[in-house]
Amino acid sequence: MSKTSLKRQLMMLDRDQIATVLLELYDARKDAREYLEYYVNPDENKMLEKYKSVIAKEFFPSKGRPRARTSVCKKAVKEFITLHPGPGLVVELRLFLLENLVRYALRMKSWIKDSHCRTACSVLEDTLDYMFVYDLTDAYIRRVDNILLTAGGIRGELPFRLGEIYDGFSGNTHDRR
Q1: How far apart (Å, rounded) are the C-alpha atoms in residues 116 and 51?
Q2: Could you tell me the sign of the dihedral formed by the alpha carbons of 136, 137, 139, 142, in that order?
Q3: Angstrom distance (rounded) from CA 120 to CA 46
Q4: Measured over all CA atoms, what is the biggest interatomic distance in the chain, rounded to whole angstroms?
Q5: Could you tell me which of 60, 63, 138, 134 has the C-alpha nearest to residue 97?
Q6: Cys staple from 112: which of 47, 89, 93, 105, with CB 3.0 to 4.6 Å?
Q7: Calpha distance 49→93 (Å, rounded)
Q8: What residues make up the domain containing 22?
Q9: What is the torsional sign of CA 63, 64, 69, 75?
Q10: Per its UniProt record, what InterPro entries does this chain match (predicted)?
Q11: pLDDT at position 170, please?
Q12: Model-level pTM greater than 0.90?
């Protein structure tokens, strides 16, 4: 069903019928419930902490071995973005993911998986572009620099690939230190 046909169907309903549909949706789907609760009470920082927790548990769980599933982390970032938080919070979560990937790679002291390398590169590239579009480069560039400096201690190609992405960034007006 397209948005247009859904909109047409909703326009034919009265106010009480729309409320009933929303309540049924609230009961039927966990992600819809979360979105509607956020819509009613938009606490961006609480949601940011929730998604940071998801990412942190993947790489540094309180019990057991880390799973380090990048798919779970990327899904958390995507879900957070669908809530339409402020651009600074989106950058914050993406950089948090990148920091955790780098810390995890350093902790492993060996070669990291290709999926981790691809995710780190795509997250850095997307974040740099996002920072440029929303004029947040000055606010977060030092943090990116620190992540890249930390990544320098990782074995393999990841530090070089991250450096290439950073150096090729169109909005990069700062010298890397």
Answers
A1: 18
A2: positive
A3: 25
A4: 62
A5: 60
A6: 105
A7: 9
A8: 1-41
A9: negative
A10: DUF6155 (IPR046153)
A11: 55
A12: no
Query: For the segment 60-106, what is each residue's pLDDT rounded down to a tens digit?
Result: 999 999 999 999 999 999 999 999 999 999 999 999 999 999 999 99
DSSP at 172: -
Average pLDDT of the chain, as a whole number: 91
Place of tokens 């201690």: 153
Residue 65: in which H helix or E strand, if any? none
* 58 shares its domain with 119: yes
Torsion of CA 65, 66, 69, 70, to 10 degrees: -170
Please report, as a single letter, which amino acid is at residue 127.
Answer: T
74 and 35 in a common domain: no
**Number of domains the chain is built from:** 2
Tell whether 19 and 60 lie within a shared domain.
no
Q: pLDDT per residue over 162-177, tens digit each?
A: 999 999 985 455 544 4
**Cβ neighbour number for residue 160 with a 10 Å cutoff:** 12
For residue 108, how many other CB atoms are within 10 A of its CB?
A: 15
Q: Which of 65, 156, 62, 51 is nearest to 102 (CA)?
A: 156
Structure tokens at 131: 């920072």
